[in-house]
Design goal:
Six copies of one chain form a homohexamer. Chain A has 133 residues and is an all-alpha fold. Chain A has two domains: 1-58, AhpD-like (Up-down Bundle), CATH 1.20.1290; 61-123, AhpD-like. Helix content of chain A is 65%, strand content 0%. Chain A is built from six helices and no strands. The first copy, chain A, has helices spanning 14-27, 34-39, 43-57, 64-78, 81-93, 98-120. Chain A is elongated and about 55 Å long. The first copy, chain A, starts with 13 loop residues before the first helix and ends in a 13-residue tail after the last helix. Chains in contact: A-B, A-C, A-D, A-E, A-F, B-C, B-D, B-E, B-F, C-D, C-E, C-F, D-E, D-F, E-F.
């Protein structure tokens, strides 16, 4: 951990341990990643973001794999190395194959190209795209 | 069209018409959107990006709806209004419901939050995330 | 002007007028754009950015057209509508043709695509690219 | 290669070798960089992006050096380390001197500053910038 | 509202009204902005983001004005027009003067310039910056 | 230094030394960071950005600590590792505690989430937010 010390379970406060325990139980794992260990330096943000991720990533109209692929796509597009690596791993656990991974990145690449072109030409939104629902 | 004049079918060159015809046939529609009409000012880019999108968005390991959701997620994350609107419309055509739309954006929002946190804390990638496949 | 009132020449302070005069003289024009009129609400930033732009965009190892194309490319890539429009106009004044404009945007689009792919695959920099000069 | 194994020429499929051969012939080199070796895990994206780059970067209204400088500028602005390093190397091969490199980055920096200012003040596009061509 | 219909108080569900009531009470106002009316199309995200913002923006080691200035700075830097406008208004309510607004944007502009330069030169982090706390 | 050699004081030109001397005197330190040593390869950019930073970061309506926190927030949001690390160090020197650091990043994260949501829903700016001052 570069900016702040990682908070290991052994020296964590009760509030942090409670979140760590819930993460491990929910994820069915026995370890805590570096991201959580960094956030644990201020437990309200650790708890809030964990509760948020749990809610957002729970099965809904979209299944967990699709949600992880979306998370991965945004992270790759933003160039966030940590989140790209961690959500690619999470997606793999949900069933992402190498072919799916390649297709996700192909869409991400294409989207970034046409986003830049649409912005560069300053293309106005077509009337029929204005109202979605 | 703000930066360049939109190229309407009537005054389009043969090269542009060929792409327009293929777009309408492939998409099963009878119109061309503002993005294509802008790109048509230089037909090689019109053709190249159309052929690329056709390849990337074709059914593969991922179905067309999932691909459109990924495209939408990246476009929303990048703040590209045109692509957000046009790919939301395309996704809706593939079956995206209001609930799916809301869940996609919830993931996009959450990913942007944790991307920023991971970057701000400069969290090192965990060893077990280093190698994906 | 949305966030702050535009500062017109007539009601500008002496400090602002001095910058406005230098802009019009240097650019060989008789008007001030909305960007400068917004910055003029706080004259030190107006002066500082104008002096900086004047220095950066002056002919050097690169000619003024190339510099404007670079400015345009970055602005389009960032999705800044104002800067895309204003620097496209400036580039046109320096000789940018519709074909050049289209080629600039094609490169911008392609760069955004491969940037996203390189980030998504987390490609390590090749040893021979490590040292440039 | 972190996320996926690099595909070396020796164990590459015929489709991948065909692209590798074309890259080396076109570029006049005898090696393949890490980016291509990553993309080679899914050959359609390898081929498509290579064909696209070849088309986009070919001499046109703009010469190859200017195109590489634009590619470099966008990559640096996006903070893509891989593309910044690889396109800086490509630009150097086309004649980029240390002075040109510094001038490119100076423009990139200035563009990012004024992009942020224009967005922050929410400056409306001047009427005379609305129509470019 | 472009993509989804705004949910007005009158036709809002009990879950949405409960959040609206809390927003108005907490903020000491009698209206709901367009952002909340859009999110209200899916009440879990409305509630979650409102609870998160309430927690994050509450007085802590930093006072509310400073927090709003940070929110504004990030929104302006990201080019999010809606958030720039809404958080500038919120900051003004907390005491932001025109001079403070101008200074915030000057820092945002400068940060974007040097961010781009640091990325372009690929400057390695100095050893003494590696560990913050 | 990866792309260009760092310019150490000993072999620096008179122009570079003059800036280095002013930096060390103004900052009250006896060393020059990697960012300046990279920029020193082209002294006009070194001088210009230093003079600009000096002006922008000087005490004004905002105190130096608040300015450094804004700089840090934007750098973290942009994912610029160098600037995040260097401005976090500068902010700490001005009094930033671990708690303040955590609160800054919590705001940065939240802003990025709602920026993405506002863009994704394409929320129109409320009439009462349109005019700030």
């Amino acid at each position: 951990m570069t900016m702040v010390p990682p908070i290991e379970y052994d020296r964590a406060s009760a509030e942090v341990r409670a979140v760590y325990d819930d993460i491990m139980k929910t994820r069915g794992t026995d370890w805590i990643n570096n991201f959580r260990k960094a956030l644990a330096n201020e437990h309200p943000t650790l708890r809030r973001t964990w509760e948020s991720v749990k809610q957002v990533m729970a099965p809904g109209a979209l299944d967990p794999l699709t949600k992880e692929l979306l998370y991965l796509a945004v992270s790759a597009s933003n160039g966030c190395a940590y989140c790209t690596a961690s959500h690619a791993a999470a997606a793999k656990k949900q069933g992402m194959t190498p072919q799916i991974f390649a297709e996700v990145l192909a869409v991400v690449g294409m989207a970034n190209e046409t986003n830049a072109l649409a912005n560069g030409y300053r293309v106005p939104v077509d009337a029929r795209f204005e109202k979605l629902f």
